Records
---
Amino acid sequence: MNAPARTTRAFTQRRRPRGMPVPEDFAEVELPLVPPAAGQAVVENLWLSVDPYMRECMDGDWELHAPLEGRSIGRVVESCSAELPVGALVFHREGWRTRAVVNAAEVRVLPRYEGVAPQSFLGLLGGTGLTAYVALTRIARLRAGDTVYVSAAAGGVGTAAGRLARLLGAGRIVGSAGSAAKVRLLTEELGYDAAFDHRAGPGLSGQLERAAPEGIDVYVDNVGGAHLEAAIGAMREHGRIAWCGAVAQYNAGSAPAAPRNLFDLVEKSIRLEGFLVSRHGDAQVELEEFLVPHLRSGRVTDRLHVTEGFERTVDAFLGMLRGENTGKAVVRLGHDALEPSADPEPSCGHTS
Amino acid sequence: MNAPARTTRAFTQRRRPRGMPVPEDFAEVELPLVPPAAGQAVVENLWLSVDPYMRECMDGDWELHAPLEGRSIGRVVESCSAELPVGALVFHREGWRTRAVVNAAEVRVLPRYEGVAPQSFLGLLGGTGLTAYVALTRIARLRAGDTVYVSAAAGGVGTAAGRLARLLGAGRIVGSAGSAAKVRLLTEELGYDAAFDHRAGPGLSGQLERAAPEGIDVYVDNVGGAHLEAAIGAMREHGRIAWCGAVAQYNAGSAPAAPRNLFDLVEKSIRLEGFLVSRHGDAQVELEEFLVPHLRSGRVTDRLHVTEGFERTVDAFLGMLRGENTGKAVVRLGHDALEPSADPEPSCGHTS
């Protein structure tokens, strides 16, 4: 019987990027794994999440030369906590590494929902799903029959927003994306009523007007900049904008042009509301109650954009920033067949 | 016994202005007064309101060479409507003229609140008061203890916002205005805790930070542009901006620079919501129920900036656009002693 490996592979950030990050901004390192103390456990990561907000972390929140952080799903392989039994699947935030020592207080043992794959907790049941859910319900306060526009509609939040909007009773749902292939995907597989390629055609405003000739009531904004301006232009009176990010801005180095038509907010009684999903953790229970029955019945299926192999985590992240993903971008570490070591006998210390 | 005069003096617009309007954009004319039909009455105007939104009307909503429109308070002097008895004080929208023929369905017979002057229905109980009330309650959803910032704080909406914020339980209330005299007025007479002259000193952001060192929760925006940017910068998390106008923009001819820090709306979970008071007429009852007891008790008094004489209506309007008023800008027509003609015998026709 082998003791669990006492090292972890991890990605660190070597330097702050200017504009779009490059692979050389990162380093893959092997680090010793501190033995778990009381209340801790060793987790073998199975799935890692790469997300747009991480681009912002690279500018300052992330410490250089330290293992990066991110949402992750793993299995407990060694435990000094009764709350984290060996074999348990857990959600935690020590991503970008193969193994992590986690504190019981900071992880969630995942419920086993029949017919729901654990990795959905990085998808529709994860941060992106929660972002879309909070955007539609708490921020935009979607009403039955509303016309909804989603930018970056083929991305993680976008694919979730389209499907959730349908389940929540929206009327027409339109999306924009950056390629003809994505546009097809939106209407053929992801339930959008209309979609357009914002890189083709006669400009955003004209395309949005054709896709939603009677205007839009709700805009889920992942993008900012020109998309926000076009959406404000297309808004009907009392429209609502749930602003959850601005991918376009993160790499720009300077603030993007704000919408020139911002005063339309007054003229059309529009609400523009930003939010951080991290402030809405209490909506997670509601999301699961709402969505799990639909996932179980197959009415919706999760759409993950899977990159295989831990060593390709940076590729997955950079590809997501370039908009190459369709659906939520995740990395699978190839440990699906992983069996917990039987009868582990860790020497548990005390947490400080 | 003289029959009521069958003419009215009125202001018309001669041409569309470029930038700040000038007196020559207007003309004072004498027009015949069509005899009232059934359901109509002749009103002798006592008070006229001049408002920032009228600058926008000049660009298109107002027909050239026709009598202009605006909120007004007058007395019924001749009536073909049982709902509008001679002598009644009414609120109506046929301003910019000395007399008007009004339809009973389109005017409001003013309630007589003891201790409340009728002209308050152009002030705290009028459109500006309602704008401030809706901004604070429905849009910003003011909470007890909130720090409130008001730009153009010595203007019509601003003076109302400061006093209403206090009555509604705000914590610190800070305002900006365009002169040292106004700044003194704000703190000495209008209940502001701090105020600053945005035309003096080291720039808006620094001044706002000194006036509200712990940040602001609510911003009532009458101005847009640089004020909006400074307010976003000073906002605390979950701040709310009620945007009811942009005086600075109306004369600019082109859209003003939008805030460069707009993305802070996401980072700080800020809500920026525009509104038109005309969509919130149903809040009028609530406003009166809330405010009349305070007006009656003298806890607040209305602050009107009165220009005397109908012939000076254009001066009052242009002065208001230049920010010369402190409090709500109105025109008094000098008919206070007006007695209704006794036993009028109008020949009432039929409305088409």
---
Amino acid sequence: MAVEKHIIKMAQAAKQAAHELSLVSTGTKNAALRKMAHALVRRKSYLISENKKDLKVAEKGNYSKALIERLRLNDKVIKEMAKCLIATAHLKDPVGAVLTSFKRPNGLLIKKVRTPIGVIGIIFESRPNVVSDCVGLCLKSGNAVILKGGREAFYSNKAIFQVLRDALQGTGVPPEAVYLISSVDREAVNVLLKLDKYIDLIIPRGGEGLIEFVAKHSRIPVIKHYKGICHVYVSDHADLNKAHNICYNAKVQKPGVCNAMESMLVHKDAAIRFLPGMVNDLKKAGVEIRGCPVTRRIIKKGIKKASNKDWETEYLDLILSVKVVAGTQEAIGHINTHGSHHSDAIVTENRKEAEEFLKSVDSACLYVNASTRFTDGYQFGFGAEIGISTDKLHARGPMALEELTTYKYLVFGKGQIRT
Amino acid sequence: MAVEKHIIKMAQAAKQAAHELSLVSTGTKNAALRKMAHALVRRKSYLISENKKDLKVAEKGNYSKALIERLRLNDKVIKEMAKCLIATAHLKDPVGAVLTSFKRPNGLLIKKVRTPIGVIGIIFESRPNVVSDCVGLCLKSGNAVILKGGREAFYSNKAIFQVLRDALQGTGVPPEAVYLISSVDREAVNVLLKLDKYIDLIIPRGGEGLIEFVAKHSRIPVIKHYKGICHVYVSDHADLNKAHNICYNAKVQKPGVCNAMESMLVHKDAAIRFLPGMVNDLKKAGVEIRGCPVTRRIIKKGIKKASNKDWETEYLDLILSVKVVAGTQEAIGHINTHGSHHSDAIVTENRKEAEEFLKSVDSACLYVNASTRFTDGYQFGFGAEIGISTDKLHARGPMALEELTTYKYLVFGKGQIRT
């Protein structure tokens, strides 16, 4: 009950602060972002010492090496966080932009203008730099934000948050526009998800369990940042050299992220030419291959049998499922059925085939002759990102400043009435 | 359980049909809309005789006159329904439109294009013309639709739906792209709201009870079409003649709709000049006035005392709450606190004051010197509308074809990989 009361008070104050923030000038917001960036660098030894407490728990708890690395704060990571805040200050303020403007026959002038959404709740796991990235993007887009991190980064999140909030004092941006729920219980999330009176949007970023819990219990609109089961389809019309480079990059360059390839589909007429060299290089890079029966007939040794579950698994690791398909239609059907509608690529030199793929695959980002690894706000030129939406509503794919806004219609009249 | 199985089958078939429909050409969709329009007119005697069954139940059940009128199908209403389908055929197809297109320094060409959302569930009450309006807009925007109407229009909804679906045969638009759940139990709604695997969006249109039920139980994203507690604020800088006409129009012209004024706010320095004449004319039109203490001091007779509940009530009737306020800030605070973020107006000749109002009031549509009654897809020039969203996410205010779409990013490369 104490937690519940505390979170309700927080949400009420955030709502009030969101209203104030919606009226704050771009210059004031930018100055606040710069002040926060400098504060992070100035107080880095404090941040690193708090981070050590989390690392100690993680090491004792036998967390995976990858997770411990994601948790670690050092000079370089803190500088990156500060740089991201400065970069966000340089981005164009989306608030107030006129999206369309038109005059009606009765003389009414209608303008559709961007406005902040209001109060945004972000529920995330592991990486503590999410705190500063999200605070920066939310404040710049005029939104208040309530953060809820995971148990594994308890001390780090709290320290970063405190440094950022302290820096807001006297900037003109109300410090009540940013909150961190320090309780690590899922019960706190459950309380948050019921506060549709004060909170306008929930963004969950994390594992399957978290996302499903949020989707099930939220009374607030949710934009899910869910898994990426990304495919590359190598057509029989592919330039196999390009295909080789793209598949290698999509799997090997950074396997632990949502835009990495998890499943490779190969046209039956390209398979014999393409697979042996490809599989050889992937194996050299340490990739475990799980193949369909045809794949295992072409490459006799060292390929595990792919189970049905493999086609729907986000490995986030050096593992790849491989399937030989009869043609583009089978590839499209497989991706729409087993994928997660995140990022999928076709490698082909046939324009008509590419168009068919682009039209029929129901994913946020579709690639022709390029690696799926480009699905990223920075790579798209958005400057920064809050994450990658796997939902279809409001925002899809990389989410940055514009995606954190809504709009309202302003109608200018001279006394018009409806007849 | 039989109902549940039936609805799941429906949703699965709709999902498959949505995929097929997303590939159908504009010309084919338009021809299907025209064929549906002609079928409605040709089979009007069947529609009217089925409608009589609903009217009979309604009359026995002592439904309000207004409700019975909303239910009634006659020659004129059926012609209007057909006209709306024809008009929708004339609207520009939103699918495939390129929203932005940009090239990245590494040569990647990125296009953001509109696509259908997928399967849309629409849960509505009373007016049977919703069936044809929604079928027309959803099909034109490439979406499959599952409709669930209210008990009061059981026979009418079923008849209209059957005529429309029969008309789809042989058009190239799959008939499985439209479904009507004929069960009138709320349990059927509950089943529908859990099918996030197949359904992409739920739009509830109706009373408070329905909207709250949907918001509470849905696992699918919801865009609510909720109540309109609309305000007109008459400033001390208003042209009082304009103010008089606007307030009269907003309250009296069609009091039973969501964009009608429910609360009138008047600046204290304008109240003595403005209120007596205004109240007099409203009373002549049969409007019951519920006033704040100052209002009742200015007009001594015939004004009921407004309770706190009045400020948050959507009367949908010839009733008006009236409050005298100290200035623009109080008006803004009152609207943001007690309103429903639908449509609110200021009457003023002072540009700075108007700007303050437009910036600070958190509503979908804001008016300067015009009646709130213009919040309507047709009045905004959108050709038709699925309704008025009172939510902030994905779509806000009048929703038409564009608001029924999402987008995807198409990325064209020449073998680019991420380094």
---
Amino acid sequence: MEQLRIPGPTPCPPEVLQAMTRQMINHRGEEYGRLQDEVIGALKKIFQTKNDVLLLTGAGTGGMEAAVVNMLSPGDTVLAVSIGVFGERFAAIARTFGAEVIPLDFEQGKPADPDAVRRALRDYPRVKAVLVTHNETSTGVTNDLKSLSAAVKEFDKLLMVDAVSSLGSINLPVDDWHCDVAISGSQKGWMVPPGMAFVSVSPEGWRAHQQAKMPRFYWDFTKAKNNAEKKQTPWTPAVSVVYALATSLKMMLAEGIDNIFARHARVTRIARDGVRSLGLPLLAADGCASHTVTAVGPFNGPDVGKLLKIMLAEHQTVLASGQGKLAGKIFRIGHLGWVHEDDIRQVLASLEAALPKAGFRA
Amino acid sequence: MEQLRIPGPTPCPPEVLQAMTRQMINHRGEEYGRLQDEVIGALKKIFQTKNDVLLLTGAGTGGMEAAVVNMLSPGDTVLAVSIGVFGERFAAIARTFGAEVIPLDFEQGKPADPDAVRRALRDYPRVKAVLVTHNETSTGVTNDLKSLSAAVKEFDKLLMVDAVSSLGSINLPVDDWHCDVAISGSQKGWMVPPGMAFVSVSPEGWRAHQQAKMPRFYWDFTKAKNNAEKKQTPWTPAVSVVYALATSLKMMLAEGIDNIFARHARVTRIARDGVRSLGLPLLAADGCASHTVTAVGPFNGPDVGKLLKIMLAEHQTVLASGQGKLAGKIFRIGHLGWVHEDDIRQVLASLEAALPKAGFRA
């Protein structure tokens, strides 16, 4: 079987794929309503939140756009904390819809520094919201969100968190860490196909929403909330993804979120130890290494593209290339969602065989 | 088996549901690229277009929002031709993003009058684009789009068509009828689950897009087009819906689009003849009756809600209620996508048994 080791879509368990063979039902009927309520209830447990969690039909980036247009007005100032491609994307969305964006960029492969956030918030008291990536897929770095949140909340700012690739895989207690908005996407740790985004909104987030003037229709949180009260979505939901999700969430709650987080930590340790024994560099330091994706590199000499081609052709293993400035310089091993220790051991064994063929020195 | 007879989601053929059990693949890899190209090629045949067709992950309403924000600038004037709830929705989206909307509303159950469009375009020469619903799901009326297009093109305006519930079921030659943008949704005539929208863009549409200043990120057509050239989408696509679509499009092309349109026409005739023999009123006249949904009513006395409950509880048949001003006054029989003559005969037989129980006079 192919080893799909990219940071989403993740492979789906067979039970989840099978759930999608269920015939369509009326998305305005009671049966769907029960299903949606069950799914939202389970999502809240894994988000560790009492906040509303809204179901949106779209990719994770759609969830990010939804967060921006529902929380902000044109002309609002936001501090955009970025440690890579997805941090830049969050900033670009805010800029597109008319926010004044103050970028706070950190070196690729490093996490954001809470004290730098404090300094920026002191320098720019007009900042209304802080945009943070919890887990930066492009560099394999997880931010210390708890500390970043403490910094943001010292200044009483809105905290908007891109948790697309962390929620469900890495501990993120949304309420304890005061996330006003936290966004995830179905194809990540949730082990289901892409097509839905989930967004939690805190009471403070709802207050901001009442004032927010960016134009919105499809992504409007008021419409989503009013419809959720009727156990519906404002627009036709991706019903088959909801079926898949109902199954995967049961599996996740049966495994237990602490066990899921521990499994992702174990898998990460195996990946990082293995990469080190192969003599390859790791982009992120141990203290900030993501538990959902491991970035290997940077390389200057050897041909990373060739390595990925050999991994695919000879080992049926799909790894991810670098994005943005890291294109051609790193490769990434995704290990989120439906992943176990042996999957990563197999990837490492394949890498060991492929590296010399691709011209990497052992 | 349940008879899901709402105007989308439509039931999916077993082959289509089965296609979704396929494991996830890399949405940035060659295998996905081939699949996307194949799907887009087939969509173009059914859209009867040489224009670009873009794949968007979202509901049909997302596709409508995408059309608006990619074609228009705040302050642009649009003529919004409305014959029901979905016409009003198209207008509301345009208004939300800052267009000046001139509403041209027609009586519910009636089609739009091309001469009224001509008069409006003469009265408001500043109109840049005309928004039209091809098939109005809420009333079961199909507009005479060919004639409406002729009126719009006499004045050289942009023609933006909500074809969500018609494309793939009712003849709509996008190029011959000069649609600058035509939008459809996966859960309609395409016989696949909801989660994707398809939008065609004409060369004139692309020229309008270059000037259009409404804010857009997730829905941006330039990003979609640039990525389509690499056989990708800008954001992670709903991969399992693409699998389903690849299967359903093969089935559709094997049946032949003329045969599909003829089947929808036959099914409609059976539905309308049957409704008449049951002594019930039809909202739309024969000349404008939709081939994807039949609206029955309006009723003033009998309890439509009770009828739909009996149809569900005793006949496992899901019909749709009225929307907007027609809520409680009509019910609707969806017959699009995976539907055959016997499905509708069964619905009619169930209706015959249910009507007296619900207090409808025979």
---
Amino acid sequence: MPHDNRPIGVFDSGLGGLTVVRALRERLPDEGVVYLGDTARLPYGTKSRDTILRFAREDADFLAGHEVKALVVACNTVSSLAMPALELAYPQLPRIGVVAAGVEALLGLERRKRVLVLGTSATVNSDSYRRLIHRVDAGVAVTSLACPLFVPLVEEGLVTGALAESVIRHYLAPMIAAPPDALILGCTHYPLLTETIADMLPSSVQIVDSAAACAASVARYLTENGATAEPGAAEPVERYYVTDMPASFFQLAQRFLGRPVARVDKVTVPE
Amino acid sequence: MPHDNRPIGVFDSGLGGLTVVRALRERLPDEGVVYLGDTARLPYGTKSRDTILRFAREDADFLAGHEVKALVVACNTVSSLAMPALELAYPQLPRIGVVAAGVEALLGLERRKRVLVLGTSATVNSDSYRRLIHRVDAGVAVTSLACPLFVPLVEEGLVTGALAESVIRHYLAPMIAAPPDALILGCTHYPLLTETIADMLPSSVQIVDSAAACAASVARYLTENGATAEPGAAEPVERYYVTDMPASFFQLAQRFLGRPVARVDKVTVPE
């Protein structure tokens, strides 16, 4: 059986994509990972389509220069807007986006008549989740809601407590009264609020884990294409690059990744 | 008396600097203004010194290319960290920063023994306000507090109401019990929260208006150097440039400027 020992490239506007790296490392411990977080220009979710497309291409250029075998778009905003642009720029490089992966996981649920998607302004405005869901099942009622305060709340580490609850209530109050069947946390920062959000909703609401869904998508792609790494052939590489504040990334990585990273390098993108 | 009809250059990471433009237009109606808001890379206040210095130089390069007679640094973060770097890059171009202007206004107050400075993480970490205040009066007790949720709150338009009050209380609770003599809103976004903040503090707390102080500094510089525009010589120019989302800038400008703008152009910085 053929193998491909090159690493998987993962990028995000910042640290959030580490939730996807965590899921990848748990599911595919033999695979190497090269991660890029564009911390100098984050957030992406409040910016325009044109600017997001430009940033996405520049991030992908960086990873392509590191000989990756696949491009994992961990950022929901980029995954919502830039997949066609990335396909044009890198037709030979397989691209797996967190949005399509989350939609696939949602469609596998038994109860999914009414779905709520929480995301950044850019993700919600792109209507990406609804469009992808309706390609398979137009009968799903999809409501999307932009929650711009969630990212700074998570970055401040305020994921529980009175203020987090006030912010969540501000956005979700109408949903608490009429809860959906399933909730997609359509931004890699939001999973850190999962427990606090879950505590405020009826237990019947199923929360889709996009990071795990994304790792499952990658696993399937690699297996189907004979592109998995040879087990035990070599210690899998794990490289972390950011465009700003490597020290802060180093500290916060543990919160997203569940363990410390060995090393973080600062790079300029575009180079 | 000599005159200089070239416009004043003003820059900020985004829209907040428009509060300075508003003060400039009110105080100096004959002066032209060229404004740059780096909306593609905002916010600056959560980023590193090196990155802020690079962005500041690139923004100044853009304005210098527009033949401005002075450089107004409306961004507190840049004004806290990059004034020496801008002096090195543009020794011939007068530079007026909002931080020094705010400090001057504070020092003109009668009661100013205990001062609270609210700002971004980068501004607070730079310790710029305390250092400038202590150059003149080391007897002032300066407390600085980073309020990272204020910027997204203002950008969401949530400047009054229960959520704004929860966020303000989160940061200011200890200060509400032991109020300072004066409060500096050390970020151009924060003045939009002035009323809500003032309602939560005793009326004895004096709030320093950095935008008005900055306009006063510019007026004094121009007068002292014979560099004011000739009154009535020509309609003063007013140009607005942003690096992303001109339509959104166009809409939100009214909130910061108090009136609509005629036109906004999108540019790429660095060019």
